[in-house]
Structures are given as C-alpha cells and as structure tokens.
C-alpha cells in the first residue's frame, strides 16, 4: 500500500514539473529560425545535394561543430592567412565546412583542366580547391580532409568574424584548399547553371601563387604515392578479374572429392612425418643447442694443443740446428781416414773397415779442459732430444761437446790433448 502511494506521489510531482516548465503562451515560446533566414548552402559540381544527405542549410548553420571536427595542428601543415583584402564571414564559411565534413570519405576531386573547382558556396563565402600537382592528372582527397583544412583556416586566420586564407589539403600536398569571399578581385562565383565556369574565373596569378607555395612543402615521396596507389589498384583489379574467370571452373573441379577420399592418407602422412621426421629433427636440434658450448670448448682446446705442439717441435728443431751449426768439424787423423790394406793367406789384398776404439778420458790439469771434446752420438732408435741432453750435460761438466753424425750410424770418437790409455 505504501508502494502505490509513493508511486502516485512521484507521478504528481512529475506532472507539476512539466506544467511549470511549459511556456504559458505561444508568444513566450521561441521558435527556431526557418531555412529562409539562412543563406543557402550550394554544393560544388559532382557533390551530393543537401536533400540526399537529409540536411538543410539551417542544419549546417546551427551545427557549428558537426561531426566533432577539429582543426589540425598548425605545426603539422602550413596555413596562409591573407590580409589587406576582401574577407568573408566566418559563419557562412563554417556552414560550408560542416557540409564538407558531413561527406566524410567522399571524393573531392580537382581535375587537371580546369585546375580550380568550387566545393561549396554559401552567401559570400566559397571553399575552393586547386590542383598543384602539375602532371596533367586530377587530384583526389577526402572531403573531410578538405573540411579539416578549411577549419584550420577559419580557426587561425579569422579576425573580427572575417576570414580569408588557404592551405594544403590534409593528407594530400597536391591540393590546396581556399576559403575566401565569393565576389572579390580574385574570382567571381557564378550560379552553377550559368556560364562561364566559376573555376575559370580564378586568376592565373593566384594559381601560380598556390603552386609556388605548395612546392615549398611538397615532399618528393608524396609525388610518387599516387602512382603507387594507381598501380596497386590496377593489380587488384586484374587479379579480381582473373579470379572471376576461374571461379565457375572451380565449382566443377573434382578437387574437393579427391581431398575427401584422401583424407585418411593425409592424416596418416601427417602423423608419420611428425613421429619419424619432425620429432627426431626437433630432438637433434635441441641436443645440438645444448651441447654447443661443450663442442666449442673441446674444439678450441684441440686447436690450441695442435698449435702449441707444432710450435714446440719447430722451436726444438731450430735450437738443435743452431747448436750444430756453431760447432767445429771433428779432428780426425789422416791415417785413420785412409783404408787399411791387409794381406790374406793367398796374398790378395782387401779393404778393412776402420776399427772403432773407445778411449777413456782423464783430465790431468785444468788447462787441458778446453782441449777436451766429447762426441755426443745418437744410436739408432733414440730420439734426437737425447743428443741435445748429452750436449747440455757435457757443457755442465766443462767439456766441449761435438756432434758427430755419420752416414749410417753414429761413431763415438774422443779427441783430447792429454790421453791416458
């Protein structure tokens, strides 16, 4: 019961509020302005009409910030404000800006000839675009980008409710947007049904000024982008056409049936390759990655050992060769060098080999040490290092070593000054 009573009280309060808020008479209610109170917004040639967009001129004048349009950062693009000449009203220019903004990604195109075209006009304001590419081709921009440029001009160039200026179209350096008075010394706006074309009335000096200003901030890459876009469009169109030709044949192709029949085989092959090819391969790769540091360490150790071994061998050979070269040739008796001829029982002579005599050396005085020589020999099968050690020992014993190397074996010979048999 209390609930219904509270609900009835709420309805009563709401009704009283509506009665108090309603105007007492029709004279107190302020009616919105009609379309006749605003200048007509006239779209440019080839652009949608207001009726097709469901808009009226009054809508464009009332909604001064349609589609949450914001001007660009003045540091990103160059905006030129014209002063000292005829200007136009900000309100009429804003209406055209709102119209272009409502077109969104619609195409605002400026042909190569004439290279100036009107996008929108209202009252004495006009928004134009000029083609500064200079290669005989039309330039295209989104109408919303043209609106962004025009909004920047209005925001940066207005003075006391008047504005006049131009700047590069957003995202397209080959088009300049122009916000100006429709009737001034530069050009004259004609109705669309009459001639001459309003674009042709744009003075040549103004167009040259646009081109000169655009060349200052037109990057070379921006001149190539239209060609790239055109080439990609041609490629896509070509492939789409070729695909459309083959599409009827694909419907008659037996490929789906073949794939359905071969389904078990395809699955078996996938399992087989997974178990016997991909899995072992992944295992081997994992092991190789894990053992890679050990492999590198062993490889470096082997290479270092080989280098050290070869270096030691070469150095030892050089030491032996140097010590051998410094020694004098052994002193040998002439009689011992001559072969002995002995007669046998039959009277025939034959050559006898020299006898090898081992002689003990006894040094009697200190002065005789310098004349004693010890022959260091290397018997067959013994490494050359033993010969080197022999020479070192002889040197430590104050003897002068002599290295004797015969042709087939080593002969031990001792030459001395004092000798005791």
TrEMBL record:
<keyword id="KW-0472">Membrane</keyword>
<feature type="transmembrane region" description="Helical">
    <location>
        <begin position="257"/>
        <end position="277"/>
    </location>
</feature>
<feature type="signal peptide">
    <location>
        <begin position="1"/>
        <end position="26"/>
    </location>
</feature>
<feature type="transmembrane region" description="Helical">
    <location>
        <begin position="283"/>
        <end position="310"/>
    </location>
</feature>
<keyword id="KW-1133">Transmembrane helix</keyword>
<feature type="region of interest" description="Disordered">
    <location>
        <begin position="328"/>
        <end position="356"/>
    </location>
</feature>
<keyword id="KW-0732">Signal</keyword>
<feature type="transmembrane region" description="Helical">
    <location>
        <begin position="224"/>
        <end position="245"/>
    </location>
</feature>
<protein>
    <submittedName>
        <fullName>Uncharacterized protein</fullName>
    </submittedName>
</protein>
<keyword id="KW-0812">Transmembrane</keyword>
């Amino acid at each position: 019961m209390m609930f219904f009573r509270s609900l009835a009280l709420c309805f009563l309060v709401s009704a009283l509020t509506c009665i108090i808020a309603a105007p007492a008479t029709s004279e107190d209610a302020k009616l919105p302005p009609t379309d006749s109170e605003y200048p007509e917004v006239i779209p440019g040639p080839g652009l949608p009409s207001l009726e097709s967009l469901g808009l009226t001129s009054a809508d464009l004048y009332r909604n001064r910030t349609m589609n949450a349009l914001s001007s660009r950062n003045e540091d990103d693009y160059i905006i030129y404000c014209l002063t000292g000449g005829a200007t136009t009203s900000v309100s009429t220019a804003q209406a055209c800006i709102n119209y272009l903004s409502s077109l969104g990604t619609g195409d605002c195109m400026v042909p190569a000839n004439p290279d100036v075209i009107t996008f929108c006009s209202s009252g004495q304001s006009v928004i134009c675009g000029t083609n500064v590419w200079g290669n005989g081709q039309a330039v295209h921009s989104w109408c919303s980008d043209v609106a962004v440029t025009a909004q920047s001009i209005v925001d940066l160039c207005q003075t006391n409710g008047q504005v006049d200026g131009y700047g590069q179209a957003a995202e397209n350096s080959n088009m300049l947007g122009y916000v100006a008075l429709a009737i001034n010394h530069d050009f004259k706006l004609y109705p669309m049904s009459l001639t001459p074309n309003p674009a042709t009335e744009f003075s040549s000096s103004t167009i040259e000024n646009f081109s000169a200003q655009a060349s200052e901030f037109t990057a070379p890459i921006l001149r190539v982008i239209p060609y790239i876009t055109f080439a990609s469009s041609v490629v896509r169109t070509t492939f789409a056409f070729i695909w459309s030709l083959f599409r009827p044949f694909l419907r008659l192709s037996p490929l789906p049936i073949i794939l359905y029949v071969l389904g078990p085989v395809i699955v078996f092959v996938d399992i087989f390759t997974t178990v016997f090819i991909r899995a072992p391969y992944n295992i081997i790769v994992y092991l190789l990655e894990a053992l890679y540091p050990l492999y590198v360490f062993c490889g470096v150790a082997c290479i270092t050992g080989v280098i050290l071994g070869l270096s030691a061998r070469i150095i030892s050979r050089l030491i032996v060769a140097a010590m051998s070269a410094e020694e004098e040739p052994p002193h040998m008796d002439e009689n011992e060098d001559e072969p002995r001829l002995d007669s046998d029982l039959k009277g025939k002579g034959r050559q006898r080999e020299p006898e090898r005599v081992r002689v003990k050396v006894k040094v009697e005085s200190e002065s005789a040490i310098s004349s004693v020589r010890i022959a260091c020999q290397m018997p067959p099968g013994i490494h050359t290092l033993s010969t080197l050690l022999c020479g070192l020992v002889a040197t430590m014993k104050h003897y002068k070593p002599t290295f004797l190397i015969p042709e087939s074996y080593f002969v031990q010979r001792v030459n001395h000054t004092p000798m005791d048999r």
